Amino acid sequence: MHATIVVAHPIHQSLTQEMARRVSEGIVAADAGHSAEIVDLMVEGFDPRFTARDIAVLAEEAAPSQDVLAEQARLDRSDALVLVYPVYWWSMPALLKGWIDRVFVNGWAYDYSPKKGLVKKLGRLPIHLIAIGAADRGTYDRHGYTDAMKVQIDHGIFNYCGAPVLTSELLHLPDTGAPLALLDRTEAIGRGVFGERLAECA
C-alpha cells in the first residue's frame, strides 16, 4: 500500500521535516510491501493562492489547472494521506491550507449543488494528521485550542469530504522535553498507518 505524506515547512532541517521522514520510515518498516512519498510543498513550489480561476472551478464553471490535477492524481494513487505540519496561530500553515483549498474541490473531493445536496467522495482515502505545537498541552486545553482545531480540520475539512480521520495527533514539544521523543512517536504513528484501523474505512 502507498501513502502520500504532505509536509509544509520552509526549512529542510526542521523538526517538522524530520518528523515527515520518520513517518515514512515507520510506514516502510511496518511492511516490506508498503511505500511512502514525501511531498514537500515548499520545495515543489506549489502555489497556495486561491484565485478567480479556483472560484470558477469551485462553481464547476472551469476545469482545474494542471498543478491541481497533478495533486489530485497523486492522491488518487494513494491508499492514505498523512499531513505533517507545525501549528501556526492555532491552525495549519497557510501553504498547507492553500493546498487543501485548491486541491479538495467540488467535483473531486465532494459534489455539492443546491438541488442534489452534498455527496462525499473521499471515503476511500484515510487521513492521518500529525501537528506539532510549541505550547504545552495544558495551554491548548485551557483555551479550547485542541477542540477548536479538531472541529476546524478533522470535521470541517475531511468529514465534509467523507475522508475518515484515523489519526489526529497534536504533539507538544514542551511536554516531551526533547525532540527525540516526538520523532519516536511519529515513527510509531507511521508504523500504524496501514494497521488494523484501516478496516474502519473499508
Strand proportion, as a percent range, falls in 15-25%
> According to CATH, what is the class?
Alpha Beta
Mean pLDDT comes to 92
In CATH, the topology is named Rossmann fold
Number of domains: 1
Overall shape: it is globular
CATH architecture: 3-Layer(aba) Sandwich
How would you describe what is shown here?
- The protein has one domain (11-195): Rossmann fold, CATH 3.40.50.360.
- It is globular, with a radius of gyration of 17 Å.
- 44% of the residues lie in helices and 21% in strands.
- It contains 9 helices and 7 strands.
- The protein has 202 residues and is an alpha/beta fold.
- The protein has helices spanning 15-30, 41-44, 52-58, 66-76, 94-103, 137-143, 145-161, 173-176, 179-191; strands at 2-7, 35-40, 80-86, 110-113, 117-120, 127-133, 165-172.
- The longest helix has 17 residues, at 145-161.
Features:
202 residues; alpha/beta; Rossmann fold; five-stranded parallel beta sheet; two-stranded antiparallel ribbon; 9 helices; 44% helix; globular
Short description:
The chain has helices at residues 15-30, 41-44, 52-58, 66-76, 94-103, 137-143, 145-161, 173-176, 179-191, and strands spanning 2-7, 35-40, 80-86, 110-113, 117-120, 127-133, 165-172. The protein is of the alpha/beta class.
